[in-house]
Amino acid sequence: MALSGAADRLRGVPEVYDPLTDPAPAHDLRAVLRIRAFRRLWIAFGLSSLGDWIGLLALTAMAKAFAGDDYQMANFAIGGVLFLRVLPALVMGPVAGWIADRLDRRWTMILGDLIRAAFFVTIPLVGTLTWLLIATVLIEIVSLIWGPAKDASVPNLVPRHRLEAANQLSLITTYGSALPAAVIFTAITLVTRGLGEFSIDLAVYVNAATFLVSGLAIVSVAEIGRAVHEHEEHPTLWRTMVDGWSYVTGTPVVRGLVVGISGAFAAGAVVIGLGRTYVEDLDAGDPGYGVLFGAVFGGLALGMGFAPRLFSGLSRRRLFAAGLVGSGIGLAGLALIQQLEIATMIAIVLGFCAGASWVSGYTLLGLEVPDAVRGRTFAFVQSAVRTVLAVTLAVAPFIAGAIGRRTVTVGDRSLSYNGAALTMLIAAILAGVIGLVAWRQMDDRPGVPFWRDVRRSFGKTPGVYPTTGFFIALEGGEGAGKSTQSALLVKWLQERGHEVLLTREPGATDLGKTLRQIVLDPATGDISHRAEALIYAADKAEHVDSVIRPALKAGAVVITDRYVDSALAYQGSGRDLEIADVERVNRWATDDLRPNLTILLDLPPKRGLGRFEERDRIEAQSADFHERVRAAFLELAAAEPQHYLVIDATQEREQIAQQIQARLLPMLPKVEL
């Protein structure tokens, strides 16, 4: 497929987009939307989200209309609709996960959209408050099934390094569609103002139409299928639920993610639940409430959209936990600051931190959770989030009311505080504790100071790329197949007329052979980690000066088996060294010469190490060491995907070679005939 696409380019035929060879940055949202299957699912999801928001507005308006002029009954009716939208999550979450994991996800979503459309159509036709409440429960049950099926499908539609951007789009669409939904609802009610109750009925019918179109859009996404189950064929519903709960509660990383995501959501919910009382205490009234509400959701959107790119030096786990702690600090700031202008800026920061945790957590769930239990896990998250929302909105105002307004007099001074602010302070402490617990459970860079990673996000240098010749580096863990692919690549390039130099690190020079013997021979034993890093850096300095640069100046294509990324992954992340220090030494040793393209062959360490009967000094390191190395390689590639090609090395070698050739074909210099 890849080679045929390359041939089509040469003939002038438009190529089919291949997400694996797209050089756009990992956080480029346009690159994700170029993936046809995800784009169509995103359109369907956007329509469903739009329908959810229109439905909320229309059903609350219709409930009030059904209740008549009775003020108390109208409030009960609206409150009933809001409560019933949350209630099914407390009961149906595990069942929804079972359906998402056992049935065909594509048809689950198609039927879910069609069923929701049908229920919405019946509400104005039946025309009673009782049926409206019943239909609300049924619609929410279907939505609980639809959501996990969608969330579990996304990781199968996009490459691993595009998943974060895909989640950003999904989450921004979830909250961003509230604004166009409000505009549509307002426009419908204004245009049809003279038609009485039909005005609201029309909004409900428009809502039903969004679900209908969403279902039709998903029909074309054939790539969505059933979850992959490797060991069990037809477990019972109860067994599936128990297994899902056991997996979530028994896996520290996933448990931390679920608790943390719920905590991030709770931080925002506290502000929304207490916001009205909070701004009244500041004498800001309705406009102040609107500003505070917009600040929280605006910050949430900013965090989802920009935090992963802005703090690219942080791993996703660290960004997730840091966002939780930041949310707690933001809540504390709101509780302590009694000035609307400053509180608004703090609310934006709070929302930004919560959004950073939310998108990082969702991405980690997609990467960490096996496909067979992914639907159950996302259903568990949805249930937890909705439960937290219900409890927070119900309990926070009650606590604030119980505290009331208090004044404490000390000598000549008096200190006044209110229940809303003090409740926010309590919630801030809880959010901070949750963040710290998540940090301890999930920190994947123990011993490396957090602020060094933050500085690393803003201290990157562009590097120097060859202007003559072409420089390729093959990277990956042990047993990933670099030697095999190097040989295949050399043969392909030579057939196309290129002069090729194949080299490696360490050991490509006379000095390098001696250094290689030192660092790889098991007889060397334990040596200082800094000494090991410096030995590798010395090999690179000699390698670049005496082998790589002369060949590039002569116009050759240079292929090196390992380069600077291996030092960053093995000595920076695998060892206990500060990665910034390792990078500084290796950039200096190589005079900051960087490959035009780095090909990362990604393979689970257990599978790669199983290919060796005897292991050298590095191969004999612990499983945790090699897992950290793999994670470091993937983070390096995700930060600058325009210079990387990440390939699943579990594929057949011919498939891998085709993907490498397809990516290189438009990049290579022309051969003089």
Strand order of the largest sheet: 4-5-3-6-7
Task: Determine the structural class based on helices, strands and strand pairing.
Answer: mainly alpha
Task: Report mean pLDDT, rounded to a whole number.
Answer: 76
Number of strands: 7
Give the radius of gyration.
28 Å
CATH architecture of the largest domain: Up-down Bundle
CATH H-level name of the largest domain... which superfamily?
Answer: MFS general substrate transporter like domains
Please report which band the strand proportion falls in: under 5%, 5-15%, 15-25%, 25-35%, 35-45% or over 45%.
5-15%
* CATH topology call of the largest domain: Growth Hormone, Chain: A
Supply the number of helical segments: 25
Residues in helices, as a percent range: over 70%
CATH class of the largest domain: Mainly Alpha
Uncertain spans, ≥5 residues at pLDDT below 50?
Answer: 1-16
Q: Span from first to last CA? A: 28 Å
Tell me the domain tally: 3
Backbone shape = globular
Sheet having the most strands: 5 strands, parallel
